[in-house]
Amino acid sequence: MFTPEHLELQATVRRLIDREITPYIDKWESDEIFPAHTVFKKLGSAGLLGVNKPVEFGGMGLDYTFEIAFCEAIGEIGCGGVGMAIAVQTDMATPALARHGSDELRELFLKPTIAGDYVVCLGVSESGAGSDVASVKTTATKDGDDYVINGSKMWITNGTQADWMCLLANTGGDNVHRNKSLICLPLRENGKLREGITMQKIKKVGMWSSDTAQVFFDNVRVPQRYRIGEEGHGFTYQMQQFQEERLSGATRRVTALSNVIEETVAYTRERKAFGRSILDNQAVHFRLAELKTQVELLRSLIYRAAQVHMRGQDMTELASMAKLTAGRLCREVTDGCLQYWGGMGFTWENSVSRAWRDLRLISIGGGADEIMLTIICKHMGTLPGRR
């Protein structure tokens, strides 16, 4: 699927990773945060935060296959947290704004986000509404020309550093699929949190370098003109946005899993037991071959989904299959490879144990495996009551 232009884009990304990210990963992991504004500005200055976004707002205007190429290259980052944070900026919190936002909104929020001047976060999940997006309770009540926002959001990647949030909130009505809107919500004024907004940082099992927060809203005002698209269409817009998030997540994991396998081959080739290398055992090299085959099958599924999306068709089923497969492979590959590292695999200071921690998230975030199965069954017509 990739042309020389795609490969050159990937080479540019990898050079930037080698220069601006890799030397600092261990420190960022220890600090449990990375300097998002600094890193994003470097990515933005290179034009990499808007690969498939409109040229008039600072993007490259390239087709979606180039975004997939970008995601593959971002997967080279030696920790999951930084890559996930970048994906929020490019594939999770901005597709709906780019597609449905007014020119004013795109000028105010999308353009500086593509440039790397703003950091964005996505405000969908809540403590009582994760995969069940229709159950979110946060409200945006009309008052004059404003919305007044009350509620909270949970698991907010980039939360403690973000300048604005793409917020999903209830804006009126009883139909849970028609009473929500997406809103561009500024989080800070003069570098400080706006009045009525408070945050609490969350400590996680993995993705340490990515700051994650619970965010609370108490009568926070935002102009109604900051709404993305039509009122009441937020659930639909977010479901569309989820597809690009899910395919981005699967794509980044293909590269990460390939690297885990390659590193395990190198380690087991050098590690000796009972007079020969661990890799010389047929059970080991056969198993690694099986895992590599599964990763390449996932890559093919991702490319197929991207081509469907390119044709303007619905990639929901294929994107759900890709995310489901990626989540299961992340558990299978990282756990299987960690086993071959022996005692070293159970220490913090190696890339395989970090991948084991970080990559576990994909089966949960952005829609759990069970949600992906439900979506696939819906498309198959096998859900109870839908036959």
In N-to-C order, the SSE pattern is HHHHHHHEEEEEEEEEEHEEHHHH
Tell me the fraction of residues in β-strands, as a range. 15-25%
The helix-and-strand class reads: alpha+beta
Count of domain modules: 3
Model regions low in confidence, pLDDT < 50 over at least 5 residues:
none
| Helix count, DSSP H or I runs of 4 or more residues | 12
Distance between the termini: 36 Å
* Largest sheet, spatial ordering of strands: 1-4-5-10
Highest-level CATH class of the largest domain: Mainly Alpha
Total strand segments:
12
Mean of pLDDT: 96
* Fraction of residues in H or I helices: 40-55%
Gyration radius over CA: 21 Å
> Which homologous superfamily in CATH is the superfamily of the largest domain?
Butyryl-CoA Dehydrogenase, subunit A, domain 3
* Biggest sheet statistics: 4 strands, mixed
Coarse morphology:
globular
Overview of the structural elements:
The protein is α+β, with helices and mostly antiparallel strands and 387 residues long. The chain has three domains: 4-115, Orthogonal Bundle (Butyryl-Coa Dehydrogenase, subunit A, domain 1); 120-231, Butyryl-CoA Dehydrogenase, subunit A, domain 2; 235-380, Up-down Bundle (Butyryl-CoA Dehydrogenase, subunit A, domain 3). It has twelve helices and twelve strands. The protein has helices spanning 4-20, 25-31, 36-45, 64-74, 80-92, 95-100, 103-115, 234-270, 282-310, 316-340, 351-358, 369-380; strands at residues 120-123, 139-143, 146-157, 164-170, 180-186, 188-189, 192-193, 197-201, 212-223, 227-228, 272-273, 276-277. The chain has a four-stranded mixed beta sheet. A four-stranded antiparallel beta sheet has the order 2-3-9-8, covered by helices on one side. Strands 6-7 form a two-stranded antiparallel ribbon. A hairpin with a 2-residue loop joins strand 11 and strand 12. Helix 4 packs across helix 8, helix 8 (234-270) runs antiparallel to helix 9 and helix 9 (282-310) packs antiparallel against helix 10. The longest helix has 37 residues, at 234-270. It is globular. The two termini are 36 Å apart. The mean pLDDT is 96.
